[in-house]
């Protein structure tokens, strides 16, 4: 059995935090609990964590600020937000920072563990995928390293960007159904996740903008299509 996965848990409600930590530990995770964003950030810099669960509303440093600082250090680590109020702005801001998921209080702890499991399977389980490198016009996209390389530069993609681009590549020059993409990556095809996906599509367009032969187009009412006329066969 692999070592236990380490989770950074930041929650200022002491009772909820302790319950969450105990529940995660009972489910086989190693969970460290911190009551505010400042302590959480210090712990993140010292520890080697596999996933972060962050409350949005915290003293000293809120979850969104903490997530931004964590992202500056590590673009890959999955982040789940706990939010007391499903405020559109908070959720969308969280996704712009690069959150992987959010869960609204009150929530079932079993659902949180399910979401953690789904994210970890996506992140870790990609090693089983047969295609690891796609050629998109002049770009080479490595799904495992999460890099997009052109003759001029190499860009490191976030986990979400990489997952979405891999789905688009696997449907290259075909329609990628919106609901299929949402359920594959975000689990749930609700309004917030749909808006989040739009944000990531915009980011991918920026990453691919130097090759005019590549387009990601909206297919109204259906989804998206990655058009890459010079697409070569993917490598395995």
Structure description:
The chain has helices at residues 14-26, 37-46, 63-73, 88-97, 109-124, 159-170, 178-186, 191-207, and strands spanning 6-10, 30-34, 51-55, 79-83, 101-104, 133-136, 139-142, 147-149, 154-156, 175-177, 215-219, 223-227. It has a 5-stranded parallel sheet, sandwiched between helices. It folds into 2 domains: 6-126, Rossmann fold; 129-227, Winged helix-like DNA-binding domain superfamily/Winged helix DNA-binding domain (Arc Repressor Mutant, subunit A), CATH 1.10.10. The protein is of the alpha/beta class. The chain is built from 8 helices and 12 strands.
CATH topology descriptor of the largest domain: Rossmann fold
Please state the CA-atom Rg, rounded to the nearest Å: 18 Å
Write out the CATH superfamily name of the largest domain: Response regulator
Stretches where pLDDT falls below 50 for ≥5 residues? 231-236
């Amino acid at each position: 059995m692999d070592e236990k996965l380490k989770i950074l848990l930041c929650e200022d409600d002491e009772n909820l935090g302790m319950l969450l930590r105990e529940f995660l530990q009972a489910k086989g995770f190693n969970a460290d609990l911190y009551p505010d964003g400042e302590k959480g950030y210090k712990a993140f810099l010292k520890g080697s964590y596999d996933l972060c669960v962050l409350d949005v509303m915290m003293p000293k440093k809120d979850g969104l600020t903490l997530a931004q600082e964590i992202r500056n250090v590590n673009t890959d680590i999955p982040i789940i937000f706990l939010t007391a109020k499903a405020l559109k702005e908070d959720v969308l801001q969280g996704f712009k920072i690069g959150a992987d998921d959010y869960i609204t209080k009150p929530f079932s702890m079993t659902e949180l563990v399910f979401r953690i499991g789904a994210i970890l399977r996506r992140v870790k389980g990609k090693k089983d995928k047969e295609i690891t490198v796609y050629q998109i016009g002049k770009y080479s996209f490595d799904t495992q390293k999460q890099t997009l390389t052109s003759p001029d530069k190499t860009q490191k993609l976030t986990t979400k960007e990489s997952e979405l681009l891999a789905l688009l590549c696997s449907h290259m020059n075909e329609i990628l159904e919106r609901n299929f993409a949402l359920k594959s990556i975000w689990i749930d095809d609700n309004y917030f996740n749909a808006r989040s996906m739009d944000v990531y599509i915009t980011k991918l367009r920026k990453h691919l903008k130097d090759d005019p032969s590549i387009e990601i187009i909206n297919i109204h009412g259906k989804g998206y299509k990655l058009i890459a006329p010079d697409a070569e066969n993917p490598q395995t």
